[in-house]
Amino acid sequence: MKNAFAMIFAGFLAFTGLWAAPHAAVTKGETPEAEPKILGAVITRADGTFLGLEVVAGNFKLSFYDTKKKAIAPNVSQARATWPNPRGLGDLRTMLNRSENALVGAKPVLPPYTYNVRLVLLQGTGEQQQVVESFVVPFRG
Predict the structure, then answer these.
(1) CB contact set of 109 (below 8 Å; sequence gap of 6+)
(2) Which tens digit of pLDDT belongs to each residue from 77-101?
(3) Which of 19, 47, 122, 140 would bridge with 13, disulfide CB 3.0–4.6 Å?
């Protein structure tokens, strides 16, 4: 009787796939790689790369990422951000200039951070400056 029960139980496990379920082999010292995270509001560009718009130290910061979501150097010279004034009439705007590995604005951004930001990426300087891309970003930072 015990033998019959063992055979039925083994058959059940084999049928459901629990008998020899493959387990992921994790060796000591190995950690699974987590997907890189883009900080702030994520913007997907036409070429498959990404932008991350966030408020850092009270100013807009625009970070650039490749197709694998790894940080890269900006491929534009400047950006212009325009957003509604939460405390009055009209719009606020700032130029984002290169600072280390990102573009950072000089004008403080006031809370609440719930508005659409119009973002224009610019290449060149002076009168030779041209618009490369533009986005409307629903910012909820």
Answers:
(1) 55, 58, 59, 60, 83, 92
(2) 999 999 999 888 999 999 999 998 9
(3) 19
Residues in the chain with pLDDT < 50? 18-21, 23, 25-26
- Cis geometry, peptide bond prior to residue 112 (ω within 30 degrees of 0): yes
User: What are the phi and psi torsion angles at 17 (to 5°)?
Assistant: 85, 10
User: Could you give the CA distance from residue 110 to residue 108 in angstroms, rounded to a whole number?
Assistant: 6
pLDDT of res. 88: 87
Best CA proximity match to 119, nearest among 101, 102, 139: 139
Q: Kindly report the CATH number assigned to the domain that includes residue 97.
A: 2.60.40
Does residue 34 belong to any structural domain of this protein? no
Can you give the pTM of this predicted structure? 0.74
With respect to residue 14, please indicate whether it lies within any of the assigned structural domains: no
- The C-alpha R_g of the chain, in whole angstroms, comes to 26
- pLDDT score, position 28: 59
Distance CA 78, CA 58 (A): 19
Domain that holds residue 83: 41-140
* Cβ-based neighbours of 124, under 8 Å, separated by 6 or more: 77, 130
